[in-house]
Amino acid sequence: MGRVFGYGPAKAEDGSHGGQSSKIEYTAEDIRFTVAKDKKAMYVFFLGKPEAGELIEIRTIGGYHRNIPPAPIKKVNVLGSNVAVNWELTAESFYLTIPVNGMNEIATVFKFELE
After folding, report:
1. Closest to 49 (Cα-Cα) out of 2, 110, 7, 95
2. In three state form, how does the secondary structure of 43-59 look?
3. What is the pLDDT of residues 79-89, one digit of tens each?
4. First and final CA of the chain: distance in angstroms?
5. Are strands 4-5 and 55-58 parallel, antiparallel or unpaired?
6. For 111, what's the count of Cα atoms within 13 Å in the CB-facing half-sphere?
7. What does residue 89 show for φ and ψ, rounded to 5 degrees?
């Protein structure tokens, strides 16, 4: 089984004025979510390049988190490409296998098409 990913370091350094410090070094283990206004898509941002072939568990999607995503998932792909992504949603968690193509060094975005 792969590692469990989710929200990464968010502690701001002393003297900052709220929010996350620009000095935080993000990795592919730092994940952020946003949902389209029409609720037909959710975008999952890996803030770094995830490792191809790795099985990722994202506990904040599925199971006990009733609002993420706001509708059933139909399809997952890498944003900006036709690269299909293997995934599974269980009662406890969401599992995603990182594809070989479509990754970016700075951020990789997955588009979840919703019903």
Report:
1. 110
2. EEEECCCCCCCCEEEEC
3. 888 888 999 98
4. 28
5. parallel
6. 15
7. -110, 125
